[in-house]
Design goal:
Number of strands: 19
Shape: elongated
Helix content: 25-40%
EC number: 6.2.1.13
Distance between the termini: 29 Å
Number of domains: 3
Strand order of the largest sheet: 9-8-11-10-12-13-14
CATH topology of the largest domain: Rossmann fold
Keywords: ATP-binding, Ligase, Nucleotide-binding
CATH architecture of the largest domain: 3-Layer(aba) Sandwich
Catalytic activity: acetate + ATP + CoA = acetyl-CoA + ADP + phosphate
CATH superfamily of the largest domain: Succinyl-CoA synthetase domains
Enzyme class: ligase
Protein name: acetate--CoA ligase (ADP-forming)
Radius of gyration: 25 Å
């Protein structure tokens, strides 16, 4: 089922109050400032004009022409009749309004869905934060706008979604889409999994769920998506208290966590424990589709190299045994005090040439599936120099980097990111990134 009319719309109508600070006004502002190139129609029975981001719009008293999507931010009790009225003119409705099943108002939600079905309209929400179709320059939400990229974020919770988008910006993540689906009265996580699995701009899918309503359908959709793309899941409501909180939040059934865990594994999805891991996994998959389990560690500092080795082994990955030929070649140009076994320790004064040659030599070793390159630069070697070595080294295998820390590596990290290489700020986080890639290996 195509949901392009939501994520790549050519026209949109926004319903609500257009006073500054009101939700409909903020969504309108986001759509305009985000550079949406299609038709935008603000609607409110009082009419008038609204000025937003240097443009003036006439507020229509009612919708009188067809649009792809309607974004609705009006009091809950008026939503069913509005959908009945505009149903023949729209393909999809994003209902931001709260006050439905999440507060026990199931009847009103049922009525809204019935009116939508009567007209063949698909509904996202209610009680949601809206949607982004980033490559369609469509920011139909009041959340912070993001940079284009390959991650589609599906979130049951609007607030979590907003926090995740802001965090994603800080982490240098690029997004293809965002959808907060709230009460899932019509479209739910399974629909979005299937849609993004086939969306050419989406490289990986991140899913935040508290619970699902149709277990069997969810498993089928999850398997369908996981066969095509990495699906990263953060499940909330694992504990008994958390499950109760989830039920009152979006009216969902959280169910037994063990059942979910088994389902994720069976479908080939990747479960993470916390938000930080969600982004680290997304960063890894934005760079590489998969990796093998045999890892070579290259470092200029013994301690972080040991930490990385410990973590890799703990995560079930292998510390690759370098061939005699590789060791011999490394010894031919590395200073005698360097360790040429794995991890390869280039020692503190390692420069551009030492890093570049080592990466290239180790990369050729057929016992190595992926590389973890660590850099803790001394004050006399700029981190940009080592970043340049990583970028320019000829290697056709996944290379995950850990430059640390803070101000010392800011320039190098910026240069890496400009060249599509994401930094993992600790050896442990870099090791986890390799594990997630290996799970798809």
């Amino acid at each position: 089922m195509s949901l392009d009319f939501f994520f790549y719309p050519k026209s949109v109508a926004v319903f609500g109050s257009f006073k500054k600070g009101a939700i409909a006004y903020e969504i309108l502002r986001n759509i305009v400032e985000g550079g949406f190139e299609g038709k935008i129609i603000p609607v409110n029975p009082k009419g008038g004009r609204v000025e937003v981001a240097g443009r003036t719009f006439r507020i229509r008293e009612k919708l009188e022409e067809p649009v792809d999507t309607a974004i609705i931010a009006i009091p809950a009790k008026f939503v069913p009749s509005l959908i009945d009225e505009i149903g023949p003119l729209i393909r999809g409705a994003v209902v931001i309004s709260a006050g439905f099943s999440e507060v026990g108002n199931e009847e009103l939600e049922r009525e809204m869905v019935e009116k939508a079905k009567k007209h063949g309209v698909r509904v996202i929400g209610p009680n949601c934060a809206g949607i982004f179709g980033v490559h369609g320059k469509f920011f139909g939400s009041f959340e912070v706008r993001v940079n284009p990229g390959g991650l589609a974020l599906i979130s049951q919770s609007g607030a979590f979604g907003g926090a995740a988008l802001a965090m994603g910006n800080d982490e240098g993540i690029g997004f293809s889409a965002f959808v907060s689906y709230g009460n899932a009265s019509d479209l739910n996580e399974s629909d979005f999994l299937e849609y993004f699995a086939d969306d050419e701009n989406t490289k990986a899918i991140a899913l935040y769920i508290e619970g699902v309503k149709e277990g069997r359908r969810f498993l089928k959709a999850l398997r369908y998506a996981s066969e095509r793309k990495p699906v990263i899941i953060l499940k909330a409501g694992k504990s008994e208290s958390g499950a109760k909180a989830a039920a009152s939040h979006t009216g969902s059934l959280a169910g037994s966590y063990e059942i979910y865990r088994a389902a994720f594994k069976q479908a080939g999805a990747i479960e993470v424990e916390e938000m930080e891991e969600l982004f680290d996994a997304a960063k890894a998959f934005e760079m590489y589709p998969r990796a093998g389990k045999r890892i070579a560690v290259i470092t200029n500092s013994g301690g972080p190299g040991v930490l990385a080795t410990d973590k890799l082994e703990k995560l079930g990955l292998e510390i690759a045994k370098l061939s005699d030929e590789t060791v011999k070649e490394l010894r031919s140009f590395l200073p005698p005090q360097c360790s040429t076994r794995n991890p390869v320790d280039l020692i503190a004064d390692a420069d551009y040439e030492r890093y570049k040659r080592t990466i290239e030599v180790v990369c050729k070793d057929e016992n190595v599936d992926a590389l973890l390159v660590i850099c803790v630069p001394p004050i006399f070697i700029p981190s940009e120099e080592i970043a340049k070595a990583v970028i320019e080294a000829k290697c056709d295998k996944p290379v995950v980097v850990n430059f640390m820390a803070g101000e010392l590596v800011r320039g190098g990290v910026k240069l890496l990111e400009e060249n599509g290489i994401k930094n993992f700020p600790t050896p442990e986080r870099a090791a986890k990134a390799l594990r997630w890639l290996a799970l798809r290996g």
